[in-house]
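Hi everyone,

Forwarding the result from last night's run.
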Amino acid sequence: MGKLVIESLLRLLVVLVAVFLIRTVLPDDKFWLILTIAAILAGVVLPAYTGYKKFYAQNREIIENSICSKCRHFDESAVLCTKYESHPKPGYIPCGGKEFETS
């Protein structure tokens, strides 16, 4: 999930620099706000949304059906066991079920 945030921030930086350069080149200032909003939506928001959907689809089984998802040490946003600092996988539970604590 952190990778998704970093990529979105980098895309935002690139989009803002590109819009600024286009605005300095074009003499007409009528549509710069519309251009900026459209560029941010197309270049930042849409890729971040599709990336989140892909992340959730890849980790759906762990988030919804594993023993880890019911544990208080489980961080759903990062799919991480905070006690062992390890990512659970479909065939792997970091504590093996021994350190399970209900939330």
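The beta strands are 74-75, 80-81.

Cheers,
N.
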